[in-house]
Amino acid sequence: MDLVDPFGRTIRDLRISVTDRCNFRCTYCMPEEGMQWVPRSEVLTFEEFERLGRIFVERFEVDGLRLTGGEPTVRAHLPVLVAKLAELRVPAGSSSPLAGQKPDLSITTNGATFRLLAHELREAGLDRVNISLDTLQRDRFQQMTRRDELVRVLDGIEAAKEAGFSPVKINAVVERGVNDDEILDLARFGRERGVEVRFIEFMPLDATGHWMNDKVVSQDEIVSAIAAEFPLEQVPARGAAPADRWRYLDGAGMIGVIPTVTKPFCGDCDRVRLTADGQFRTCLFATSEFDLRALMRAGASDDDLAMEIQRAVGTKWAGHQINQVNFIRPTRSMSQIGG
Ligand code: SAM
Ligand code: SF4
């Protein structure tokens, strides 16, 4: 049965935050110190994630599961969870292109320890990897992430390719005055390494609250900066994917831009989110959550959980209001929600 929201959007993609903890402290995401972690007893177990994953995939025909966080690779034994999720099957009668098959399994990671896990995750059934990389300069990397890990992240990208992940994509948040002078260098890196760089507009989900509209580098600015050096043509039809994409005219690959702030794509959104502590959210910017953990731990049946999920999806709004005066920042920041 499809999970359809009040605006007729069918939900196909679930983002699962497996932990709110992280080995980095990126300035646009977390404070340097003082982050309040969810107590471990409140974080869902693998069995709980699997149970909810099964309801989404096998009952509601969700065909994409993305693991995120916090940093998903700091959760111990992550390949065990991937293997459990890889056993799920999208119903044979579904209209999904993956009907009868396992859902598409992907991860968003900072990549610092990816070499240690790449092979095992691949064997467990993970399909695709996005690695975050906002700068190629070691000093700046240290300033932006508060960790001196550029070399290991670059190695993590190579490890992902060696393990056979395809595509490997790079996520680069662009913040004005911080790394916007590196747009071209990052594009060049993608062309040379055969990875698709996806530039992300800076969103008001930083824990320190320093986001301001003029720190956002717009999709138009990003694309013009690259096209001035490497001619591009837009690839039509994004569908429900968050990134608009362009192809290099010389055949050297693609770039993507996620224009959450300047060109919201809410009308095509097919995503919902599960936080590490089992709260269900129908939008990254939602101001309310539905407590699936409490229901599960109070003995709810799968039918009860499915009903609560349907009730929540019934409240999914048309879109976020970032550019409106009535925009309310979510109380939880990106790493607590699961980006
Ligand atoms: N730790 C992993 C990582 O960094 O890839 C996964 C979680 S992280 C929250 C997911 C993505 O959100 C990353 O690509 C990160 O760069 C991005 N992100 C974090 N804070 C952001 C913000 N304020 N605006 C835009 N993107 C942000
Ligand atoms: Fe950690 Fe990812 Fe947030 Fe950086 S963006 S602090 S790596 S969760």
| Largest beta sheet: strand ordering | 7-8-9-6-5-4-3-2-1-10-11-12
The overall number of domains is 1
Strand content: 15-25%
Report the major sheet. 12 strands, mixed
Unreliable spans: none
Task: Give the SSE string.
Answer: EHEHEHEHHEHEHEEEEEEHHH
Q: Class in CATH?
A: Alpha Beta
Bound molecules: S-adenosylmethionine, iron/sulfur cluster
CATH superfamily: Aldolase class I
Could you name the CATH topology?
Answer: TIM Barrel
Short description:
The protein is an alpha/beta fold and 339 residues long.
Would you mind describing this structure in some detail?
The protein is of the alpha/beta class. The protein has one domain (13-337): Alpha-Beta Barrel (TIM Barrel), CATH 3.20.20. The chain is built from ten helices and twelve strands. Strands 7-8-9-6-5-4-3-2-1-10-11-12 form a twelve-stranded mixed β-sheet. Helix 1 runs parallel beside helix 2 (78-85). Bound molecules: S-adenosylmethionine and iron/sulfur cluster. Iron/sulfur cluster is lined by residues 22, 24-26, 29-30, 69-71, 110, 132, 334-335.
